[in-house]
Write a structure and sequence with these properties.
- By secondary structure, this protein is an alpha+beta fold.
- It has one domain (about 5-70): Beta-Lactamase (2-Layer Sandwich), CATH 3.30.450.
- The protein has one helix at about 40-70; strands at about 5-10, 15-25, 30-40.
- It is elongated and about 45 Å long.
- About 15% of the residues are buried.
Length: about 80
């Protein structure tokens, strides 16, 4: 899994954010798991938040891989429907 991205007061003053990528089985990033906290609390909470964000992204990545495997063998995994035309 790729790393964690942090931003402190770049988008919004007084807030900080951490995000980790969620990937599909090909390695393509398909989403993120992110948290925002008050910037004043960021430094003291950063390591714990990084661990939580990484774990969440890893779990989401695993679930996507499992759903894809089930779909590949025709087990009816829950996948988004394609829009009808």
């Amino acid at each position: 899994m790729r790393g964690v991205v942090a931003e402190v007061e770049e988008l919004q003053l007084k807030f900080a954010c951490l995000a980790a990528p969620v990937s599909d089985p090909t390695g393509r990033v398909v989403g993120t798991v992110a948290v925002s906290v008050p910037a004043a609390q960021f430094e003291e909470r950063q390591l714990r938040l990084e661990r939580i964000v990484r774990q969440g992204a890893a779990q989401a990545t695993r679930l996507i891989a499992e759903a894809t495997q089930l779909e590949d063998v025709g087990c009816g995994a829950a996948v988004p429907r394609q829009p009808s035309q």
